[in-house]
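The pair is listed for reference:
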Amino acid sequence: MKDDSIENPNTGNTGSTTLPEEIIDTLWEPLLVLEKDLRVQAANDAFYHHFKVEPGETVGRQVYDLGNGQWDIPLLRESLEEVLPPKEVCFKDFEVQHTFEQIGRRTLLLKARRIDHLQLILLAMEDVTERQEIEALRAAKAVAEESNRAKSLFLANMSHEIRTPMMVFLAGVELLLQLDKNPERRKILEMTDQSAQRLRALLDDILEFSSIEAQGVQIEEKPFDLQACVQNTVQEMGEKARKKNLQLKTEIFPTTPDAFVGDQERLGKVLLNLIDNAIKFTEKGEVRVAVRPRGDHVEFSVSDTGVGVPEEKREMIYHRFSQADDSFTRRHGGAGLGLAISRRLVELMGGGRIGLEARPGGGSIFFFTLPLKTATSHRTPLAADDADTTAAPLDSPCILLAEDEPMIQDIIQTMLTHHGYRSEIAGTGREAVQKWKEGNFDLILMDLQMPEMNGLEATRQIRETERAKKSASSA
């Protein structure tokens, strides 16, 4: 570009209406120099480099024609005309979209500045496409996180509202089974109890799966007795296996550590689901639970002698509400959530995905691994003199029941009285803290969701008071 003299606005001297090329090339932003008829007089290197165009495609052309004219021409024309003489406005910032042949459609922040003494317009361009995309992603992420928080809160409230009447119903049926020995009525009560247990299991699965999808499940990392966890879970399913005349066996390899670090409740839930699934689809034979170390992991497996799973359906069974047999006439019930929940929980606990193999001779083997995290054993062995000693029963133990739902209060108090316990009720978390401070209780049954103060906060205050008392007594 020819470097002619420039008019000095203070002296009135005249010269050419061009800008030196070395000046505009020092600017890092893409820049066009427009004449008053909006033709491109010059462009800097940043413009050519960023938008991948050649000088021959730019200089001398109307700004509307750049990039095959794919501007928002009305917006561009209206905005630029605002800074043309004799308008008083000499600068204008605006956004416009434009399509360039080499790099596609871009969103540009245009900054138009008029230089009166040169009768030129400088049009700086900032490509804000990526920035807007990032902002849009952040906004979408914020909306999704807020949606998940709302979903988690809804699930927590729904869980409480559904489980409260369900608990009253189950406890009432259990109490009636203990009190009523009439064979005819007991048969009806037993059927009612079985149906209620199925309904509770279904509600638990639906709420837990929804909570996992809403990222509302927090995995704990606490020491626990791994072997006891497995044995207790197997024992919990023992009655169901006995009703089908199935053998339910446990095989824990000797090198398996007992002191484990992880989430005992979630591990138990996965094992429970796998054992329940194995018993459901096994008509005769056995279900075997095995635990063994595998390098830096622990492998858990549940094998059965049941119907097995066809190879083409082995991936599908992990999908929610899916079973290997989806026909309406399938013999086995269930919502098809157990394996989907188990797979998600194993992933959340840092383990590998649940696998499935065919068992030699018929049946299936479900297995999964978890990272091997051991802790110092917390088992307390019995002294020789204590091995056959039976502890004396407590004399009328007193229980503080922290619960705000009247139905729950009534049914639990009735059950506690029936089993020989004394009890007092606290209707709020704050009342529970106060009654505990004033009374002498052997146990507190604490509800999590209560008015004035929730159960977690009430428990925290009680624990702090206990620690303060212990410190004061030892001082």
Summary: The chain has twelve helices and 15 strands.
